[in-house]
Design a protein that fits this description.
By secondary structure, this protein is of the alpha/beta class. Helix content is about 40%, strand content about 25%. The chain is built from 15 helices and 19 strands. α6 (about 190-200) links the parallel β9 (about 175-180) and β10.
């Protein structure tokens, strides 16, 4: 159905799609070691990682995506992986020079680099800051050395504090720490100890998320002993949310907590169903036109990706989303936001009318998973936040 087709019994007409904010994601796929819980498109780095060749491919890919952007302004750039900090500051600088040459960046564009403690070993953080990175996201995961070993991490707890000190010395004032909970053998007190340790380092943002055993991971095939059950996970979650709030971190998404309004611009654009361009092996993109919303992805395997770039074959197939897919994908993201969403945002981002939304909301409201907090604005209930998968499943395409 086109964006102008009439919907619902009210005779309303869905509006043309407005151009939502636009972000850029760049994937750098190698890690020192693949973690047993990780289901991202990442690979253990070979002895001679083809960094220069891969950067050449990224620069060719940026040219493809610049044409797709059509002059739209970029509000955020996220360099994810993998472990992007395995690339030197000079290499990251070359990459960001390509971004600046091909795109118009907003004056306050957020430019994030993912890094692991102990893996910022190609140069000091000041070099990344000089290259144009203005936000670091450090994969701490835990401050307990036994937990870190159980997770297959290559750093120790002490490395996290050193990484934060180096980040600040390098000029970074915006730093996220990634933390996990529901780790093997972890109880409430150990999870809260991790949060207190993180808070003591005063990051501007903490991403605190539950360990899940994802398909196609080592942990899924061979689950570690002692993973907390659902009731214990909820006990940890409730206590941790209270501690983060008392420590000055506002929860604005199911796993995201920010101080002083320092919410992630890039991730918030995902959750509000904005557009994002995809660069790198296995990167996924979403782009809106006045009449359609498209998904696309790049070749997953780094070698295949680099060959495609060298052969000028990086323009991917665009797959248009159906109306039911638009509604589901909007809700898949928007229900993660603790403040919820309103009908105006839904219509602007999906091109669908309000009746389509309200008809699908009804069973979720009846189950107590979501509520209307004011006219045409909805918010997940505490029950909906606890059972988020059940809430999102209500909106699955028929």
């Amino acid at each position: 159905m086109s964006a102008a087709k009439q919907l619902g019994s009210e005779g309303e007409v869905s509006q043309q799609l407005a151009s939502p904010p636009l972000s850029l994601y760049v994937h750098l796929p190698w890690c020192v070691q693949k973690c047993p819980y990780c289901d991202f498109n990442s690979y253990q780095a070979p002895m001679h990682t083809p960094r220069r060749r891969y950067l050449d491919a990224l620069l060719a890919d940026l040219s493809v995506e610049a044409a797709r952007a059509g002059g739209r302004k970029i509000i955020s750039v996220f360099l994810g992986g993998g472990t992007p900090s395995l690339f030197t500051p000079a290499e990251i600088g070359r990459l960001l020079d390509g971004v600046r040459a091909g795109f118009t960046l907003a004056g306050d564009a957020e430019i994030t680099l993912e890094a692991n403690p102990g893996a910022v070993d190609c140069g000091d953080p000041a070099g990344y800051r000089d290259a144009g990175v203005n936000r670091l996201s450090i994969g701490a995961q835990s401050f307990n050395d036994d937990s870190l070993r159980a997770l297959g991490r290559i750093h120790a707890a002490a490395d996290i504090g050193r990484a934060m000190t180096a980040a600040r010395a390098g000029g970074f004032t915006n730093v996220n720490l990634d933390l996990m909970y529901a780790l093997p053998g972890q109880g409430v007190s150990a999870a809260l100890a991790d949060i207190r340790a993180a808070v003591s380092l005063t990051p501007t943002h903490i991403s605190w998320y539950q360990l899940t055993l994802e398909p196609n991971t080592v942990f899924y095939a061979r689950p570690p002993p002692g993973v907390p059950d659902g009731d214990r996970c909820y006990e940890i979650q409730s206590a941790g949310q209270a501690l983060l709030s008392d420590s000055g971190y506002e929860q604005y998404e199911i796993s995201a907590y920010a101080r002083d309004g320092m919410r992630s611009i890039h991730n918030r654009n995902y959750w509000r169903f904005g557009d994002y361009l995809a660069v790198g092996a296995g990167a996924h993109g979403k782009i809106s036109t006045p009449g359609e919303i498209y998904r696309y992805e790049k070749p997953r395997n780094p070698e295949r990706y680099m060959r495609a770039a060298e052969q000028g074959e990086l323009a991917p197939e665009l797959v248009a989303l159906s109306d039911s897919e638009r509604l589901f994908e909007f809700m898949l993201n928007a229900t993660r936001l603790t403040a919820g969403f309103d009908q105006a945002l839904f219509q602007a981002r999906t091109g669908l009318g309000g009746t389509a939304l309200r008809d699908r909301l009804a069973p979720a409201i009846e189950k107590g998973l979501i509520r209307e907090v004011r006219d045409q604005r909805w918010q997940p209930t505490p029950l909906g936040q606890r059972f988020l998968n059940d809430l999102q499943a209500v909106f699955l395409p028929d």
